[in-house]
Write a structure and sequence with these properties.
With about 375 residues, this protein is α/β, with parallel strands linked by helices. The chain is built from ten helices and twelve strands. The strands form three sheets. It has a five-stranded mixed beta sheet with strand order 2-1-3-4-6, with helices on one face.
Length: about 375
């Protein structure tokens, strides 16, 4: 499916062009061209205008349709172009083509703030600035405002609440995450897509640009052939990961001391220098905000069975027999399958590279 062509001229715009053409014809007539000669000239000009308009539509269609996606297809023909991945001005039709696996979240249905969008303007009706998650609320509000002001199509009026907490919120409304077992909230992008100051990292776009640079420098063959993870061991699932990879030649699992200036940490973009990246959910059994960054790497993401859903999870293909597999999700929450999975990947490097390539095509920048 190609991007829709630019809209045709409105009646008013067409009248302006016709009026200008008539004035030009009168000037030609006054200059000495009379009768049939003027008419023939005007007809040729109309043909010239028509040809120029058709050529313009072809060029615009080429510009806005750099790739072809079938919304109902299970695979993607190519990676998302840089200009499309970073654009904040796509139409609804262009979003349908570029991000076909994200919309199921909207069909499933409160908070840190209350927001109303009326006639294209955003109003903050409620905001609690002194909570521990106030910076997250500010970031979500910033992301919403950016989306409203950048939209090239009218946005529907809405009055909404959202929760910025790691475990979502009670009742119905908008949230950054929700339990796969409950599924009551409507999902929106989490605060990290706009800004995340606490772990001293930039927002999603800043990390994305640095990942682009790292991936342009390191080929798949030159990536470190180990399973990498860094974080605080604040949840049993993370302790289980460390135990499963302990003393294994393919394991590089380590902790971070946040109270000691983040000792042991590695910039998110440098995670992409590894072939395999582990993902473990976070403190108190909550979701982990790092997954969106890891998915931008041309690496194989290996996760345990996830408890928390986010707005982009519908794009995952974890089917081990699928030619479009873009992530590995192990069964259970104890990493029991990790050892045999790593052995399989080491013995089948073509499959590992395929999964990483699929992730790059279908998840990177989306």
């Amino acid at each position: 499916m190609a991007y829709p062509p630019a809209a045709p001229l409105t009646d008013a715009e067409d009248d302006i062009q016709t009026e200008e053409g008539t004035v030009f014809l009168e000037r030609v007539a006054r200059s000495g061209i009379r009768g049939g000669g003027a008419r023939r000239l005007w007809e040729s000009l109309r043909l010239h205008y028509l040809f120029s308009a058709l050529l313009g539509l072809v060029l615009l269609s080429h510009i806005f349709a750099p790739h072809s996606f079938d919304v109902n297809a299970t695979d993607y023909s190519e990676a998302l172009p840089h200009a499309i991945a970073q654009s904040l001005s796509l139409t609804h039709a262009q979003c349908d083509v570029s991000f076909p696996k994200l919309w199921p979240q909207i069909e499933q249905r409160p908070g840190g703030a209350r927001v109303a969008i009326i006639d294209g303007q955003m109003f903050v009706k409620k905001y609690e600035p002194y909570t521990h998650s106030s910076t997250r609320t500010q970031a979500v509000l910033g992301g919403l405002y950016e989306a409203v002001t950048a939209s090239v199509e009218p946005m529907p009026d809405v009055d909404m609440t959202f929760h910025p907490q790691d475990k979502g919120g009670p009742g119905t409304g908008f949230s950054m995450t929700r339990s796969y077992l409950e599924g009551a909230a409507w999902l929106i992008p989490d605060f990290g897509f706009y800004s995340w100051p606490e772990p001293v990292t930039t927002g999603y776009k800043g990390v994305w640009r640095k990942i682009e640079r790292v991936e342009s420098e390191v080929t798949w063959e030159n990536k470190v052939p180990k399973l990498f993870w860094r974080g605080a061991f604040l949840a049993p699932i993370r302790d289980a990961l460390r135990k499963a990879a302990d003393r294994m030649p393919w394991g590089d699992i380590g902790g971070i001391e946040w109270g000691n200036k983040g000792k042991g940490s590695l910039p998110l973009w440098d995670h992409c220098r590894y072939k395999y990246l582990a993902h473990a959910e976070g403190f108190g059994g909550a979701y982990s905000g790092r997954l969106k960054y890891l998915l931008d790497c041309r690496s194989v993401i290996i996760a345990h069975e996830l408890h928390w859903d986010q707005h982009f999870h519908a794009a995952f293909d974890s089917n081990s027999s699928s030619p479009n597999q873009n992530i590995i999700i192990l069964k259970g929450k104890d990493w029991d399958e990790l050892g045999q999975t790593m052995t399989f990947l080491e013995e089948n490097p073509e499959r590992a590279e395929l999964i990483a390539a699929n992730a790059w095509r279908t998840l990177h920048g989306r």
